[in-house]
Design brief:
The chain is mainly alpha-helical. The protein has one domain (7-64). The chain has helices at 7-20, 24-55, 57-64.
C-alpha cells in the first residue's frame, strides 16, 4: 500500500511520532485502528437506534400526537 500525504501532514506526523517515541508507521497504524473502531461504533449505534425506533414505534407515535 502506498499512502500519499502532503509535506505538512508528513511533518506533523513526524513531530507526533517523535514526541511519542514511536515510528511514523506506528502512528499511522494507530490512527487507522482508531478510525475503524470509531466508524464501527457509529454503525452499531445507528443499528441499535433503528432497532429501538422500530420496537417502540407505537409509543413514539403516541408521544408525537
Amino acid at each position: 500500500m502506498t499512502l500519499s500525504l502532503s509535506e505538512e501532514q508528513t511533518e506533523a506526523l513526524r513531530r507526533r511520532a517523535e514526541k511519542e517515541g514511536r515510528s511514523l508507521q506506528q502512528v499511522v497504524q494507530s490512527a487507522v485502528e482508531e478510525y475503524i473502531a470509531r466508524h464501527d461504533a457509529d454503525e452499531e449505534v445507528r443499528r441499535l437506534g433503528l432497532a429501538a425506533a422500530s420496537r417502540w414505534r407505537s409509543v413514539l407515535d403516541r408521544l408525537a400526537e
